[in-house]
Every structure is written in C-alpha cells, then in structure tokens.
C-alpha cells in the first residue's frame, strides 16, 4: 500500500494512492462502519484509522488491514451523502507522508563509496545525527535556499519509518517494527555543517528534508536490500548506488538504535547517502536557484523538488 498525507481545502489527511486516485482512509472507514449499522462511527474511525499519519501508524498492522478494507469500500462507493471518499491526485496536494515525525535519526557514513570520497575510514559503529521535524517538506514543495551560505548540497537517502514501539529489539525480528519505506533528501549547508565537529547546524535548517512522495508499507516492500538509488540534478546523474552497499543494514539500525532509545511509531530513520555529493566533486558543485533534484529508488518511486532562493525581508 502507498500511504500518503494529502491536503485538501486546508486540511491534512491520511490517504492511500492507487492509479492516480487518492482515498481518504479515515472518512472511508467511517462510512464503512456506518454502512454496517454501528453507532459512533466517527469515533470508531478516529480510534482505528485516524486522520493523521502518526496516529495511524500507532494502530500498527490492525490499522493497515482496516485501511485496506476501507480502500475497497471506497472504490466501490466513491461518494456517500455528499461526502467524497476518492479524489484525483491532481485535486489534492501531496505532503510529506510523515509530516511531523517524533524523531528524525540520520546515519552518516553508511555507504562505502561516500565514506571514501569524504576521506574517512569505515566506522565500527553508526555515525548518528538528527534533523528537526520542521525540516520536513513535501514532494510538491520547493527546497528553500536561505542566504546563509552558498554551499547547498544534496544527499539521496533511503529512509524507513517505525511502525510500533521498539526497545532492545534483535536484528532477527527488526523488520517487524518497520511500518514502511520512503525517500528523503538530506539537504545540507556544507560550510555550516563543517565549521564545528558537530554536524547538526548544517543539517537542520528549515525545509532541508524533502520527503515522499509516499510511504510504501513493509508488507509490500518486504526486503529493504538490493534497491537501486539514483539522484539527478537537472537530469544529470550525480549519485547511484544500491541499498545492498549499506555498511549498517536496516535490521542492524533498528537493533542498534532501539538499544539507545525507544523508537516510536512515526519515527523516521535516514540510512545514509552514497558517493557523488557536490562537496566531493572536483571542482565542487553546489545547488543553485532553480535546480531540479530528483531521487529515485526501486519499488518506492521518485521524489522531485526545485531549489528556490529565499529573499529575506528586512
């Protein structure tokens, strides 16, 4: 299932997308419950198929299965008492699938070729940093380029989203705790990142985490290894790798991270970027106003955003 967060008439809702059609999962399930003659259908729908992504993910596999029933019902009953259950994807705005993650944990130096191009050694343990939730923007948003630096860089990232509370999880069962997978661009202001030994300030500028276009649920994408990852800038290939080349796998990261912190539904983990970043090119090439950055990952899709220079008001 392709889970999305979409905005229509100023309200953000959880949906599923099928063949360029968007199903409002919460409303579809509410109408389904009503059709079964049950009372308090709105409250039941809000409890089991909430309208916000974090709430939906907290419902785990039960919410996913109920959502599938709602999808089938909606496709057979597209409107009910003036309430539309299905929309064209062109009539809504796609937002980041997880617009407000509780935690965004990022892994640095996790592809061998990127480690080498940055002049570092293969780490014995994952290199961790974070991005704040207000870095998140959607697949139809521009990447804001603030006039604080001229070294704006891209980083293609295969990301996974936690689906149930995880603490001290073993690698053998780690994938059971993953709700699904998406794409994130870890946009980075390089000179700001590197002016101290801590990377946070160059990584967490507002709008620096385009995410999407959707979340592929783990029952559909069962193996996170072996996926091709390609990033282009204005159609020119800059990054190309395969998730089989990760130093630390998804399973390892779930186990490792859950021994440090309790992972919660809606937490997003970025698994690292491959070689080919602009900073490491000779000569260096950074993003500029109007550039189109596109990241494509097998079995997920493509995330495409335009860079837009921000003119600060005095």
Automatic annotation (TrEMBL):
Which species is this UniProt entry from?
A: Neobacillus niacini
Please report which protein family the annotation says this sequence is part of: Belongs to the FAH family.
Q: What is the lineage of its organism?
A: Bacteria, Bacillati, Bacillota, Bacilli, Bacillales
| Record keywords, A-Z | Hydrolase, Metal-binding
Q: Which domain of life is it from?
A: Bacteria
Alphabetized PANTHER family for the sequence:
FUMARYLACETOACETATE HYDROLASE DOMAIN-CONTAINING PROTEIN 2A (PTHR42796:SF4), FUMARYLACETOACETATE HYDROLASE DOMAIN-CONTAINING PROTEIN 2A-RELATED (PTHR42796)
| Cited SUPFAM superfamilies | FAH
Stated EC number for the protein is 3.7.1.5
Question: Which InterPro entries would you find in this protein's record?
Answer: FAH (IPR051121), Fumarylacetoacetase-like_C (IPR011234), Fumarylacetoacetase_C_sf (IPR036663)
Protein name from the UniProt record: Acylpyruvate hydrolase
Q: Which GO terms describe its biological process?
A: carboxylic acid metabolic process
């Amino acid at each position: 299932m392709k889970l999305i967060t979409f905005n229509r008439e100023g309200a953000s809702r959880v949906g599923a997308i099928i063949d360029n059609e968007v199903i409002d999962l919460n409303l579809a399930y509410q109408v389904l419950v009503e059709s079964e003659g049950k009372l308090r259908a709105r409250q039941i729908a809000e409890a089991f198929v909430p309208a916000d992504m974090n709430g939906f993910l907290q419902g785990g596999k039960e919410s996913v299965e109920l959502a599938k029933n709602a999808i089938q019902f909606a496709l057979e009953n597209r409107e009910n008492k003036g309430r539309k259950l299905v929309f064209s994807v062109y009539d809504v705005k796609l937002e980041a699938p997880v617009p407000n993650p509780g935690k965004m944990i990022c892994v640095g130096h996790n592809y061998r070729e990127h480690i080498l191009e940055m002049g570092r050694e293969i780490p014995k343990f994952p290199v961790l940093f974070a991005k704040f939730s207000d870095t998140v923007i959607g697949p139809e948003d521009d990447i804001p380029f603030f006039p604080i630096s001229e070294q704006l860089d891209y980083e293609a990232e295969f990301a996974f989203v936690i689906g149930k509370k995880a603490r001290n999880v073993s690698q053998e069962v780690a994938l059971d705790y993953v709700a699904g997978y998406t794409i994130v661009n870890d946009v980075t202001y390089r000179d700001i990142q590197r002016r101290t030994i801590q990377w946070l300030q160059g990584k967490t500028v507002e709008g620096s985490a385009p995410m999407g276009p959707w979340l592929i649920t783990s029952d559909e994408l069962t193996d996170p290894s072996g996926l091709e990852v390609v990033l282009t800038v204005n159609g020119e290939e800059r990054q190309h790798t395969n998730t089989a080349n990760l130093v630390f796998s998804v399973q390892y990261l779930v186990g490792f991270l859950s021994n440090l912190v309790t992972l919660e539904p809606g937490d997003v983990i970025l698994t690292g970027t491959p070689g080919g970043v602009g900073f490491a090119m000779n000569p260096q090439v950074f993003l500029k106003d109007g550039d189109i950055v596109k990241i494509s990952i097998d079995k997920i899709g493509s995330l495409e955003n335009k860079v837009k220079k921000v003119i600060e008001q005095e």
